[in-house]
Amino acid sequence: MKERLEAVVGWLRLCTDLGLSLLCLAVIVGLMFGPNAPFFPVDVVGNILAVTKQLGSEGLVGLVAVVMLASVFGRQLKE
User: DSSP alpha helices (H): ranges in the chain?
Assistant: First the structure.
């Protein structure tokens, strides 16, 4: 049972790493070509700014959410 749970956690980490890599690629493409890139039609940078603005307007709750996300990403980078 423990081996299966570790396998699932391993797959989840791989999926999270892939998602973060794709997000970084989308941000770079958005910064280089703007929101109207024909091969990536989503404005990722605008969406990130909107989420950041929304978290900032929430005050303490937004700050706690950002700290929690930063701790999760920081812990994954160490592993």
Answer: 2-33, 44-57, 60-78
**How far apart are alpha carbons 10 and 14 in whole angstroms?**
6
Triad 49, 47, 71: Cα angle to 5°: 65
Give 7-24 pLDDT, tens digit per residue: 998 898 889 888 888 888
- Burial, 44: exposed, middle or buried (Cβ in 10 Å; 0-12, 13-18, 19+)? buried
pLDDT on residue 58: 67
Task: Give 70-73 contacts, CB < 8 A, sequence gap 24+.
Answer: 73/20
Tell me which residue range forms the domain holding 44: 2-78
